[in-house]
């Protein structure tokens, strides 16, 4: 993992639990989005990189452990796995209050031009800011 990592707290809301008493799996997409928004605000925009449009191209979640009201709040760690020309891969590791890894969400985000509906290259400033949180993943 990198020397510099981004970590934030994600609150589990009362309505997030299903009939079985654990957080519904679909809500992990929302938790990953919340962590991603905080990461961009606190690390990328705060580093002086102008806010730019991004779209999620792909999202994959591995569910490892259930989350309940008692095991919340979650801690989300954000890492960058790969930086390309117009896209990058991001990882969210979500841990419960005891430090247990509950889910790992990997996504691909693409720079986007809303007027043309096409992808756009990431700026050098964006690449540099993302690179500060990059990790090397081994199989």
Automatic annotation (TrEMBL):
GO MF terms, alphabetically ordered: hydrolase activity
Keyword Hydrolase among record annotations: yes
Presence of the UniProt keyword Hydrolase in the record: yes
Keywords: Hydrolase
Domain of life from the UniProt record: Bacteria
InterPro entries from the UniProt entry: 4-hydroxybenzoyl-CoA_TE (IPR050563), HotDog_dom_sf (IPR029069)
EC supergroup of this enzyme: hydrolase
Protein name: Acyl-CoA thioesterase
Source organism (scientific name): Rhodococcus kronopolitis
Species lineage: Bacteria, Bacillati, Actinomycetota, Actinomycetes, Mycobacteriales
